[in-house]
Every structure is written in structure tokens, then in C-alpha cells.
Amino acid sequence: MIQLKIKDKFSIELPADPDMDNSRRQVLEACFSYVTPKKPGNPSLIHFSPEMVQAIGIDYKAVKSMELLKIFSGEEVLSNTRPYAMCYGGHQFGSWAGQLGDGRAINLCEVEHNGKNWALQLKGAGETPYSRSADGLAVLRSSIREYLCSEAMFHLGVPTTRALSLVLTGDEVLRDMLYDGHPEYEKGAIVCRMAESFIRFGNFEIFTSRGDTKTLKALADFTIRHHFPQLGRPSKEAYIKLLKEVADRSLEMVMHWQRVGFVHGVMNTDNMSILGLTIDYGPYGWLEGYDHGWTPNTTDRQFKRYRYGTQPQIVLWNLLQLANALHPLIEESEPLEAILREFRDNYPKANVTMMRKKLGLQTKEADDAKVVADLEAVLQASETDMTIFFRKLANFAKNRPEEGLKIVEEAFYTLEEIEGGIKNQWEQWFGVYADRLKMEDVSDKQRKMEMDKVNPKYVLRNYMAQLGIDSADEGDYSLLEELFNLLKDPYGEQPEMEKWFAKRPDWARHKVGCSMLSCSS
Ligand code: AMP
Ligand code: MG
């Protein structure tokens, strides 16, 4: 039998919605509502992560997969637990959207194991008071995308929520994937995801928007007590430090995104974790051609608010909303503004620091910002595969800059493009790079070793996830398993997996699910 060390805190210490009715409504003066997961029609376990099962203290070899399935499909509720959905609001695409909440996420419980707190959450386990006009369910394709990507991100060293299991519910779910009036039935699925906490910026915003300072304070105090105990006892100073801490963590998170070429796609404030974790894997995508203007999210096609190049600025905008949400507890603007100003001044520097690592530069030089900016410009000017480019760049020899283009050749989508002006631009940049490398006392070999630790060889390219989805939809999970294992070691050479170190194939260029993703999930 599955026995967990249950240590519920969020639902024990914070005010609950007294209404037990699972109808859609505005929930006031409460941080969550109790709900029961929907009983799945005919659940089956597709995949689980042995590592994450162990992380919560389950000996996966001793436990029957049937038992995992019951709990992580929502069929059975663990004894001594009361599942719940959180109340939060959010700014979506720049506008206040009011109450959102866990419309299709149900928190099972919090578990303590090996000194860590894990909140367990089922995504797609049925409706809650926050489901608004939707069904509370999730489909296989979006569940595979979340399952694979959150684990891939972890192994890339990016702060993220984790994934424990992927199940099919055996129920069908109706989705209009392209929002073009052609709904179809798809397989229903549930991911059990895990994080120290799922509290979002939007959890704070909702109370401030309603003038409910009492519940806001309860939530802020709770957050500090359990997740930022180093900030000391709740006080004005501690709330200010909370913003600073969240700003620092969010900056770190987004710089990792920029480093690996991850585009979140829906950076609404309800999708921003207070712990600086990447959360809510929806229409995200991976940069293939290096392009600051790229977003995978078709819903954002017009304004491209959440494109790759603006992600750090959007974090700042979101932090401003969090600052506004915390303001009633602090009643002073200046210290909050100072934190935001600092973020604004820091993120360009953080970008150069991050790029220095990608370029294998170990010292700081005043001109590095220009070296980086020139590279970004020339990378954009020719369709260049980001992952292949940086991985290959590690083979550059500082005494042979003339070989630079040849070394990264494989990264270009159309070699014919690299002619004339662009060719000159590239050659010039390699010259500057070689000169810059000569200012450091690091051998080419040593530099390669360092670069290979920050420039992944394998990422979850958009078409790879789609191939995994297509075969899983046919009932073949071998590719899912292959990708899951591949992405556990993204910086390793894994020569037998070389076929995944390749540019996006041409068929995937404009294919739904590969280059275009809707929010439908
Ligand atoms: P997202 O953009 O996926 O982060 O979702 C925004 C809001 O819509 C959140 O409150 C979600 O819980 C809710 N939501 C998204 N999909 C569904 C669904 N299928 N059923 C109910 N609520 C949903
Ligand atoms: Mg969300």
C-alpha cells in the first residue's frame, strides 16, 4: 500500500472556501476550495518517473503499478487527505482577467520526504469551482508535452515543477485544437505534477483586487513561513524582501530559459510561480532558428507579447503586478520600485553573463556586451539552429578563426544563405571572438568542456514531442520512453542518440504541434 508522509500546510493553515458545492462561482475570502477528482472511466498508466516516485518516499519496486494508477488517476483519494483547488487571479496578455484559479488542477496533498516539501497536483482530473466555461480535463497531447518537458527542463538545470506520472483516463475529451470550429474527440489524460509549492503571483493578486487585505496577509505570511523562512518573521521588511527574493529567482529562471532557447508562450501572471519555477507547460516551444521574435503560441501571433526576446521584460512586467499585489501590506511604493528598477538594470547584465558562459568566456571584459550583441544580430540574420550552433561552437580553435564558419555549418538551415554580406558578418564575428578568446588563459579543450556543460546537445525540439505524441496516440509508448531517457542527460554526448541532434526536418516547419501551438489543451 502506498504510504506517504502527508504534511498538508496550505489547506490546513489557510482559509478554506466553506462552500462544498462544486459549482462554478466567485470564491471570496478563501485561498482554496475542496474538490474531489473525477472518477476516470478506464484508467491506464502510460509512464511514471521512478525518480519522482522515490522522491516522495515510495519504493516503486515494492509498489504495484495498479496502486500508483489509482492514486494518480484520481480514482482513489489517499486516506487522511482532502484534495483542493486553489483560488487565484491573473493578468492575461496584459489585462486583468479576474478570478481564474485551478480550473483543471486538483491538489492531492503535500508530502514531506528527505527534508523536502512536495505538493502533488493532478492536471486534468475534472472540474472545480474555477473551471469557468471549460471541462477541467486535459488531453493526451498536452499532457505528454508537460510530462516530457518539465523533466527535460529539470535535467537542463532550469528551475521547474516536476512530473511524476502520466495516465490515460479512458475518457474522451472534446477539443477544437485550432479554434476553427472543428472539434474532435481526443484521449483524456492526467499528469501528476510536483513542486515545493504551486503558489503563483496570481494567488496574491486576487485578494488585492478585491481589497481583501486580511486573506492577502494570511497568504503572504504563509508563503514566508514555509517557503522563505530566511526572510524572518512576517513584517513590512519581510514582504519587501519577499518581492526581492521572487525577483531574483524569476530572473534566474528566465535567464535559463534564454540560455536553452525555451519559449514559455503564456507568461500570464497566473503562470508565474512565486518560487521562480517554470510552471504550466502549454503552448511552449524551443527555438530552432535563433529568432528573438519567435513565439510558438498561435493565440499570441498578432502581438507576439511572449516572444523569445521579450521574456525577461515580461518577467519584469509580471513582477510589477506582484509588487502592486503586495503593496497593501507595505503601504510604501519606493522600496518596491527600487527592486523593480534593479531588475530592469540587471537583466541586460544577466544576459551578457549568461551569454559569456555559452561562449566559454571565463573573465569579464567591457566589450563583451558588444561581442554578444553582434553575435545575436548575425544569428538572427541567417536561419541558424540555436542548439546546434552553440554545441558546435565549442569546437572553435582560437588560432584558426577562418575555420569558424565551417565548424558551425551544420547549424544553418540553408547554407546558400551564408553568402555575401552575411558571410562577411560571420567572418568578422569569428575574428572578434578569436581575439576575445586570446585574452583568456584557457585552452581550446578546456573551454569546450565548460561550454558543453551549458550548451545542451539535446532539447525537446517541437517536432520530437509531436512524434512522441503521434505514436502514443496509436498506443505505442516506446518513443515517449526514448525521449524521456534521452532528455535525462541533455549535455551528454549520447552518440547512439545522434539522430536527435539534428535540425528540425522540413515537414515540421509549418506543422501544427511543431511550429504552431494553440492554447487548446
Ligand atoms: P492556462 O492558460 O492554461 O494557464 O489557463 C488559464 C486558466 O484557465 C486557469 O485558471 C486554468 O485552470 C483554466 N483552464 C485551462 N484549461 C481548462 C480546462 N480544460 N478546464 C477548466 N479550466 C481550464
Ligand atoms: Mg495556468
What is the beta-strand fraction?
5-15%
Number of strands: 11
Name the structural class: alpha+beta
**Mean of residue pLDDT values:** 97
Distance between the termini: 33 Å
Low-confidence stretches: none
Question: Tell me, what's the shape?
Answer: globular
Rg, rounded, reads: 23 Å
Number of helices: 16
Percent of residues in helices comes to 25-40%
Distinct ligand kinds:
adenosine monophosphate, magnesium ion
Q: Going across the biggest sheet, name each strand in turn.
A: 2-8-9-7-6
What string, H for helix and E for strand, traces the elements in order? HEEHHEEEEEHEEHHHEEHHHHHHHHH
Biggest beta sheet attributes:
5 strands, antiparallel
Our count of domains comes out at: 4
